Amino acid sequence: MRRFFIALAFLLLLGPAVQAGEGSVLKVLSQLVDQHGRHALSPSLYERDAYQFHLRRDPKLRGGARLAVQWKAKKVDWTKLKLRAEMRCLLGDNLHAVTLEEPAVKSGYFSSWSEFRIEGADYKTFGQIVAWRVTLLEGDKQLGQLESFLWSGVVTDPKSSTSPAPSPTPPRP
User: Fold this and answer.
1) N or C terminus of the chain with fewer C-beta within 10 Å?
2) Tens digits of residue pLDDT in 3-18
3) Is 86 within 8 Å of 98 (Cβ atoms)?
4) Per residue in 25-80, pLDDT tens?
5) Given 1.10.510, 2.40.160, 3.90.1280, 2.60.40, which CATH number is that of 22-152?
6) Do the beta carbons of residue 68 and residue 29 sit within 8 Å?
7) Structure pTM?
């Protein structure tokens, strides 16, 4: 009986050490920024939404785009933790993909915010964000992922689509 309790205590102490890391992407905000790098004029959520509407309406005021990402992780190797943002962008009639990666740095107790920015000359060739997917990785292992509702519905190359075009229905007599 004594050996059983010693083995149980050993397993309970060893359990947290071999437990895998956990993480998730909680929220992603796709926002425009002005020529000065601001996404809002004040910290008010109402003001932020109004300013985003203003930037969407007047393209000359835009200076870039950003993805603000809220994420959390625990029991991970912080040196291997990174965020990957994949964006599908529309410039004129051309749809192209852009992938950005950065180390995930913990900045809060419960969750952290990171951002991906594209500004200046890069933004001019970047275009408008149509769809995005953000992945939290520990090395090569995926811990969490969040994607926009258009991510799986956007075809990046129309020639690679395998689904046949719908045939028109014949007129009824």
Assistant:
1) C
2) 655 666 665 665 554 5
3) yes
4) 999 999 999 999 999 999 999 999 999 999 999 999 999 999 999 999 999 999 99
5) 2.60.40
6) yes
7) 0.74
Residue 146, strand partner residues: 134
| Alpha carbon distance 132, 86 (integer Å) | 6
Separation between Cα atoms, residue 105 and residue 112, nearest integer Å: 8
| Alpha-carbon gap, residue 76 to 137, rounded angstroms | 10
Give the domain ranges of the chain. Answer: 22-152
Phi, psi for residue 84 in degrees, rounded to 5? -120, 130
Rounded to whole angstroms, the Cα distance separating 94 from 30 reads: 20
C-beta pairs of 13-21 under 8 Å, 24+ apart in sequence = 16/75, 19/75, 20/75, 21/73, 21/74, 21/75, 21/76, 21/77, 21/138, 21/141, 21/143
